[in-house]
Amino acid sequence: MKDAFIRLFNILYSNYSELIIPMHRSLQEAITKNANGSANIIELRRSILKLKEQLKVIATLRTKGFLNEAKYMEQSTEVNVRINKLYKDIRLLSQSDNTMLNDMETLIAYFEKREHIMVEFEPQAFVFLIDKLVVNDSELEFHILGELIIKENI
């Protein structure tokens, strides 16, 4: 396992500008494109607008005396809870992409600061870079920071 990690590390270190930086740029472009046009986020925002319109209708009904205070509070609270859930969903959709992007930036910065290849196993590098290690019959599957998965034959 240690030798496989050293090989993997050195390949990444020697080639991060050809491997990780282009992936980072592509992810950045995809996030920008999705932030401006993501069907899911647009649909969630439309739902929020509809619910805000409902709040206006509920407030108008209360003002005109068609809803008592208790019924107004019940209905407006229910709508506000749904609005807050939709905002949370939007944040979660955006956050997962941003987390991956931040992880890739951390990975790039790590390799840019590094001065040499790995000669012997470095536990701190392993802990920093590897989120999960999966052992199969004939290969190791390294789950690297930034949600990258690289397989090494053993």
Largest sheet properties: 3 strands, antiparallel
Radius of gyration, in angstroms, nearest whole number: 24 Å
Taking pLDDT < 50 over at least 5 consecutive residues as the criterion, the unreliable ranges are none
Percentage of residues in DSSP E strands = 5-15%
What proportion of the residues is helical, as a percent range? over 70%
Order of helices and strands: HHHHEEE
Can you tell me the number of structural domains? 1
Write up this protein.
The structure is a single chain. The model has no long low-confidence stretch (mean pLDDT 86). Helix content is 73%, strand content 12%. It has a 3-stranded antiparallel β-sheet. With 154 residues, it is mostly helical. A hairpin with a 3-residue loop joins strand 1 and strand 2. It is elongated, with a radius of gyration of 24 Å.
What does the secondary structure layout of this molecule look like, with pairings?
Elements: H1 2-37, H2 39-63, H3 69-113, H4 123-129, E1 130-135, E2 139-144, E3 148-153
Antiparallel strand pairs: 1-2, 2-3
Helix pairs in contact: 1-3, 2-3
